[in-house]
Structure formats: structure tokens, C-alpha cells
Amino acid sequence: IGLSFRPWIWLWLETTGTPPHLSENTTIVKSVWIVYNTLSPLKMSNEESALLPSAREAYVDANVQASRAYHDGKHDLTANKEETWHQSEGGFLKPIIFGGLDGILTSFAIVAGSAGGGLSPEVVLVLGFSNIFADALSMGVGEFLSSKATNEWILSERKREEWEMENYPEGEIQEMIDIYKEKGMEHEDAKLVIETMAKYKDFFVDLMMAQELELQVPDEDHVEESMREGVVMFLSFATFGAMPLLGYVIIPASFPELGNDTLFISACIVTGLVLFLLGSVKSKFANMNWFTSGLETLLLGGCCATVAFTIGYYINGLVGDADVDL
Predict the structure, then answer these.
(1) Are 263 and 125 in contact (CB under 8 A)?
(2) Burial grade of 132 (CB within 10 A; 0-12, 13-18, 19 or more)
(3) Among the four residues 55, 83, 105, 277, which has the most C-beta atoms within 10 Å?
(4) Binning pLDDT at 50, 70 and 90, where does residue 326 land?
(5) 3-state SS, residue 5
(6) What percent of the chain has pLDDT over 70?
(7) Residue 69 and residue 20 in contact, taking contact as beta carbons nearer than 8 Å
(8) What per-residue confidence (pLDDT) applies to 122?
(9) Cα–Cα distances in Å, from 118 out to 7, 148, 271?
(10) Which residues of 255-291 are buried (b: 16+ CB within 10 A; e: fewer)?
(11) Tens digit of each residue's pLDDT (9 = 90 or more) over 141-150
């Protein structure tokens, strides 16, 4: 069974469980299936998966037959072909959504604060674009370094577990038996399952990492994966962050007679639409209604913008009063 690292959000979203066609007496097979779903959530190619009902859709609809067809069909496809499965790109969901929301809210906070403070469109553009791209670079680098550091720490923990397995396998096996007993297995069943899986050292060490330490072992190319996540974070932050500022570039060039209030209104409209869109997309992975998720994101973003506008408005008033006194 291939092992793969997946970010927490995908593990939360993935549907797991024992296939319905396994009998109650196949203890080892059922346990290995549970471990497989925990450690190695893999995905078929787009062409193959398109032929099968979605496991997630079957779960949401409580459709047992669709779930059975998905698992049986996946087994038939892989039994007749030697094509290697590839990992899902669901791990990029976090940097895309997080980077996009952070970018557009940061940008709109600058616009709202500047509008509340009565700053000119030129100042808004300078502050906005310089801040957005500086923050995007910071977020991308931070995502790369944090992901890399986390993976390196997990690998160091794996080396420790591997050393303990080499020097005291009986103790590690007993720990795993106790864990499976806590999950509801009888002692004899847990002992049989764990001792069977312990014959395969690398697999068993990764199993200990997942079940004992609740950590997922990263792939060998985890540094490149962390770098890709950093790049996605940078691009998402910069792209979405630039959207509230586009009106300050396009409208003056196309309609120079329009005032500053129109620029701010256009930024509000664009930001609201993008926030609702990001929230709606997020719902596809969170088992939520798309409208509810979009509205939730829109309202939270609106609260952030209101705070920024209010602070800018009152600070501008304080500064104005100070100038009058001087």
C-alpha cells in the first residue's frame, strides 16, 4: 500500500470506511482497509474516476448502491490495469482559499481605510499594490518555510519510531495493540492484526506515526511540494488581493468624470462578488450549501471592511482636528 502525506483539510473531507461487501469475519482485511483509507487516500486518473459515482456524493446522498459501485468499480479498474495512481491536488485548496481570502480582505481593508480617511486614488493605488505584493511574498515564503519545517519535524519523529521499532519491537507492537483495543477491537483480533502488519517494517512504522502520534508521513519530494504550496499561496494572495484595486485603475482611464465615491463603490462590489465566489467554492469541500457558505464569507469580509473604514474615518477626523488646532 502506497503511503502519502495529505494536508489536514483533505483528510477531514475524505470519505472512509469498510466496503459493504466485506464479511464480518474478515478482520484483517477490514483493518487493512481502514489503515489504507487513513494513510493513503489516493485518486484515480480523471478519465477513470469520471466513469464511477463519486464516493463523496454517495455519502452525502446516503446512497449505499452508489458507494458499492464506486468501491467495486475502483477495484475492477486497478485490477485490470497497472497504471499508477496519482495523488489528488486537494492539498492546494488551503493555500488557494486562505491566500485568496487573506489577499482580498487585506487589499479591501486598505481601500476602505483610505476611503474613510479621505485619501486620494493615487495614494490608494500606491499603498494597495505595494502592500499586496509585499504581503503576498511574505505569505508565500511563510507557507513554504512552515510546511517544510513541519515535514522535517515529522520525519525526525519517524526516525525515532523506526529506532524504537528496531530496538524494542515488542513494546511498539504492544502499544499498537492497546490503541486498537481502545478503538473497540477484541484483544485477540487486535493482536492478530498488529502482529500481521508488523511483519512489514516500513508500513508498520508509518502506521504507528498515524495511529500513535496522529502524524502523516510526507512524501520524499516534500521540499518541492512545500515550495509549490508557497508559490500557490503567493499567486492566490496577489491575484485576489489586486481585484479591489482594479477599479481604481480601469474606471479613471475609462470614465475620468466619475468621482472617488464611484471608485470605492466599485471596489465594494468587486470585493463582495469575489468573497461570495470564494465562499461558494469552499462549500464544495466543506459539505455546506453553496449559498450559505458564500453568504457567510461575504458577511465576515464585510465586517472586516467596516472596521477598517470606521477606523480610517475616525483617525482622519482626529488628524483633521489636530491640524485645525495647529
Answers:
(1) no
(2) buried
(3) 105
(4) very low
(5) coil
(6) 73
(7) no
(8) 87
(9) 43, 43, 20
(10) eeeeebeebbebbbebbbebbbebbbbbbebeeeeee
(11) 999 999 999 9
